[in-house]
Amino acid sequence: MFYFIDLCLNTAEVFVFFALRNINSKAMVDILDYNIQCIEQEILWKYEDIRFDYSDYDCLLSLRKDMINRRVLAHQEEILPDIIAFNDALNEALHDMYGRAHRIWDSIKDNEDFGEESEVTAKCFLSYDYPELHPIQGEDRQKLWYALCDDEWNCLYADGVTLPTLTLPRDINSSFEHFIGMDCPPPNWNEGLDRELTKDLHLTSAFHNLFDHLKFAITDFIYVREFETEINVEIRRTV
Q1: 3-state secondary structure the chain
Q2: In a domain, 176, yes or no
Q3: Domain contains 86
Q4: Is 202 inside a domain boundary?
Q5: For the chain, how many structural domains are there in total?
Q6: Is the residue at 53 inside a domain?
Q7: For every one of its 239 residues, what pLDDT tens digit does the chain have, with 9 covering 90 and above?
């Protein structure tokens, strides 16, 4: 059930111009910001108040995502360069994580000190810092970013951007192409986007996970160029 608590005291409609960079055009996408701004203020308010149920958070993040995507995806050509740049940066980060996880596994797999049942798990997250490239900047943006990236709010984000996580030795025979979903025809996870416009982009399964399954609006993550990786070694042995 969706509901609004109107925190905006000014009844006039407020428009902001959401500048979306395009190397061939200076067109701008208009976003009616009044309702979105109210939702974001509600998110910030509840994020600092522990009294609310987490189902409220899911409702607010889902509503915000749907409203932003509905406006922005009507002009996908405007954000195409950033979709491409983000996908490239994400692939590079995942490739680096994949290689490091395998090197760590190779260094412990035959080491008796790690026991007979060791496991390496690798996760990749969006940068902890609000994207500097995002067209909308402000004093509250970092706090909103914390809320969006909080896995108690954005619950499927607990394992990062990939689905599933990279786990060794379970995935020891899986190639990097398999890990990012590029080993199936067609190698392009562009569901929900303009199929013709994005047909040659080779968007990964991690992009699809962010866009389709998590609570981020597309404009939350396509301006990210830095990532955080977390590699854990778990040792199970009987003493």
Answers
A1: CCCCCCCCCCCCCCEEEECCCECCECCCEEEEHHHHHHHHHHHHHHHCCCCCCHHHHHHHHHHHHHHHHHHHHHHHHHHHHHHHHHHHHHHHHHHHHHHHHHHHHHHHCCCHHHCCEEEEEEEEEECCCCCCCCCCCCCCHHHHHHHHHCCCCCHHHHHCCCCCCEEECCCCCCCHHHHCCCCCCCCCCCCCCCCCCCCCCCCCHHHHHHHHHCCCCHHHHCCCCCEEEEEEEEEECCC
A2: yes
A3: yes
A4: yes
A5: 1
A6: no
A7: 333 333 333 323 333 333 344 333 333 354 457 889 999 999 999 888 766 666 678 899 999 999 999 999 999 999 999 999 999 999 999 999 999 999 999 999 988 777 678 999 999 999 999 999 999 999 999 999 999 999 988 989 999 999 999 999 999 999 999 999 999 888 899 999 999 999 999 999 999 999 999 999 999 999 999 999 999 999 877 66
Which pTM value belongs to this model?
A: 0.84
Domain span at residue 169 reads 77-236
